[in-house]
Amino acid sequence: MRVYIWLKIPFSMKKFLSGLILMVCLQAHSQNGPSPTPSKPKLVIGIVVDQMRWDYLYRYAEKYGQTGFKRLQTGYNCENTHIPYVPSITAPGHTCIYTGSVPAIHGIIGNEWYSREDKKVVNCVDDDAAKTVGAPGNAGNMSPQRMLTTTITDELRMASNFHSKVIGIAAKDRGAILPAGHAANGAYWFDGKSGNWITSTFYMDTLPDWVNKFNAQKLPAKYAAGNWHTLLDISKYTESTADDEPYERALKGEDKPVFPHMIADEVSKNPGALIGTPWGNTITFDFAKAVIAGEKMGKGGYTDFLTMSCSSTDYVGHQFGPNSIEAEDCYLRFDKDLGDFLSYLDKEIGAGNYLIFLSADHGAAHSVGFSDQHKIPTGAMTGDSLIKGANAYLRSKYGADSLIESYNNMQVYLHYANIKNHNLDVDAVRRDLTQYLLTVKGVAKVLNLPELMTVVLPAPYREAFINGYNQKRSGDVQVVYEPAHLEGYSKGTTHSAVYAYDTHIPLLWYGWNVKAGHDYTPTYMTDIAATLAAMLHIQEPNGCIGKPIAVSK
Ligand SMILES: [Zn+2]
User: Fold this and answer.
1) Which residues hold their Cβ within 5 A of ligand 1, which is an ion?
2) Three-state secondary structure call for residue 91
3) pLDDT digits over 272-330, tens only?
């Protein structure tokens, strides 16, 4: 009967009625059903929190709001993410995240390293061919030229035939330059002398107007004017040690490492001092918003990519240690800044249109003094005394001086020419030196690097050292200290070790196409770029050894 009525209706009427029914159905779907996930994100944002240990997600959780870390944790949380190489420091960390690769392949073996070729210590991003844009001085003579592989951001540029925009920002030059890759539209970092965000001629010849406008606000002095008081009443920082501990380091111009930190004067003379306070992160978020607005990121019909690194958490950690009120205050403020940034993205890009991951370049150890106070085996080591002892040993053994050319990143570089001049055998010197260094108190292992495959080490550690060993750039002998033995930091803290406190980092995914959940399956820093490549359906970086993590819906 119903079919009969339908057949009797004239064709033009049928067409009209079909359209009406379809419209009603679509309306009902959009009102009741989930809105469909767009096929690609408008904007990807990578946030690296310098020196953030995984446990900070939980240690201060009671004091975090709902809009920052906790909002990101409603996405996908890879709880057991580790760094799969040594050394766990800033430049290799940022490079690994964005290349999915390790120092053995991408070549960034340290923040700096000894170059046998140049006979000097070279910085990971220095480049004499590039000149500063945006300030006087050479803080901008930088480029990613020493990085040997592509980044996920390079791959996005190539996959979109260079329509996707890629920009990297960080207070630290290396935190901006390495993530943005070789083919970036720009990278900007903070020049401590002028207080300006600058770039280099590697990217452009003049700063865009929106950067000049941002710099003209002179935000460092404005942020520092109120000095550094705790966000909450100081009695509320029950997760941290007392304000004045002997193993904290005072800021420049201070007698004691205690609140309130009177930073206004110092920052007015030296804007770079702001980066040692939580406002170094705040200004980075401010600049991120300026990049998005100024470059119309996420508005061009192609997926754009903003890489940002928040460096102040690292400076504060080094200065005061991970158990300090200063470190806690820095994370509480970061949590607020992050929440504010996410609401900005909701407004400008639209919730569900942007994809975020948040991770860290490395963690940090407890301060030596703190560990000592609590009977945890620890020690303060110095590279100088280690090498002084090694030279004395080699002199007595071989009757020769200057057989060591350099000591960097806890690696000894032997002086091949001097060894040859004394008619000595390099392999024998290397083996003898390895045996000697092992006798030093606080040294756990000494690895003869060219013979790494034969070293007796638990498999994950051996793999980490192999991943960190670059045949052309690394030294001859790697010194491995016992856990919690820190070189060069009798106060405050540092990082670089193969141990969990330095290698266990947060990894949160949030936004476009990200499912809700968390798991403890082992994942690695190298998996981040692989996951992004899979989600964006683009080729992974050319040196990528990571695997995609199942974070998509
Ligand atoms: Zn650091």
Assistant:
1) 314
2) helix
3) 999 999 999 999 999 999 999 999 999 999 999 999 999 999 999 999 999 999 999 99
Q: Is the peptide bond before 483 cis (omega within 30 degrees of 0)?
A: no
Return the active site residues.
Answer: 90
- Which residue, among 490, 492, 409, has the nearest Cα to 447 in the 3D structure? 409
Q: In what order do the strands lie in the sheet with 504-505?
A: 504-505, 81-82, 523-524
Report how far ligand 1's centroid is from the alpha carbon of 363 (Å).
Answer: 8
CA 362 – ligand 1 centroid, Å: 8
Q: Residues 193-215: pLDDT tens digits?
A: 999 999 999 999 999 999 999 99
Can you say how many angstroms the Cα of residue 533 is from the centroid of all Cα atoms in its chain?
19
Give CA separation, 441 vs 69, 312, 436, 456, in Å.
41, 33, 11, 20
Distance 112 CA to ligand 1 centre (A): 13
How do residues 431-473 score in pLDDT, each as one tens digit?
999 999 999 999 999 999 999 888 889 999 999 999 999 999 9
Contact 193, 272 (CB under 8 A): yes
The CA distance from 161 to 180, in Å, is 16
Closest CA to 423 of 447, 437, 403: 403
Alpha-carbon distance of 167 to 185, in angstroms, equals: 6
Q: What is the pLDDT of residues 79-100, one digit of tens each?
A: 999 999 999 999 999 999 999 9
Distance 317 CA to ligand 1 centre (A): 8
